[in-house]
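Reply to thread "Modeling small-molecule complexes from scratch"

Following up on the discussion above, here's a worked example others can learn from. I took a protein sequence and the SMILES for H2B and predicted the complex. Inputs first:
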Amino acid sequence: MSAELNQLQCEACRAGAPQVSDEELPELLRQIPDWQPIVVDGVMQLQRVYTFRNFKQAWAASNKVAELAEQEGHHPALLLEWGKLTITWWTHAIGGLHKNDFICAAKTDAVLSAQ
Ligand SMILES: C[C@H](O)[C@H](O)[C@H]1CNC2=NC(N)=NC(=O)C2=N1
C-alpha cells in the first residue's frame, strides 16, 4: 500500500505539473472522505467546512491551516466566519487538482483533529 497521504510532502508546483487523472481520483478521494470535490469556474477543487463553537476557535483553526500552508509551500482559500471555517484546496499553477491538494487536505484533517 502507498504511504498515507498525511505522511507525504508537497512537491513544488509549477505550470505543466500533472493533474490528478480520472483514474487516480477515486482512490485519492477515498483517503479524504470528509472532503467534497467541487468545480468552480471549470476548476476542480477540494472543500471541507469545519464548524466551531465561536469565532475565536474558527480563527485559531484558520491560523493552524495557514501555518501548515507555509510549511508545505501550498496555500488554500480560507473563508473564516463565526463558528465556521471553509477550506478549499486546489493548485493555481495548473488550474486543477494535483496530488499536493490531497496531501494538504489529509494534513489539514490531522492538524485540526488534534485540537
Ligand atoms: C512559488 C510558489 O511555490 C508557488 O507560487 C506556489 C505557492 N502556493 C501555491 N498554492 C496553491 N494552492 N497553488 C499553487 O499553484 C501555488 N503555487
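What I'd highlight from this example: The radius of gyration is 14 Å. The pocket of H2B is lined by residues 12-13, 73-75, 91-93 (CB under 6 Å). Questions welcome below.
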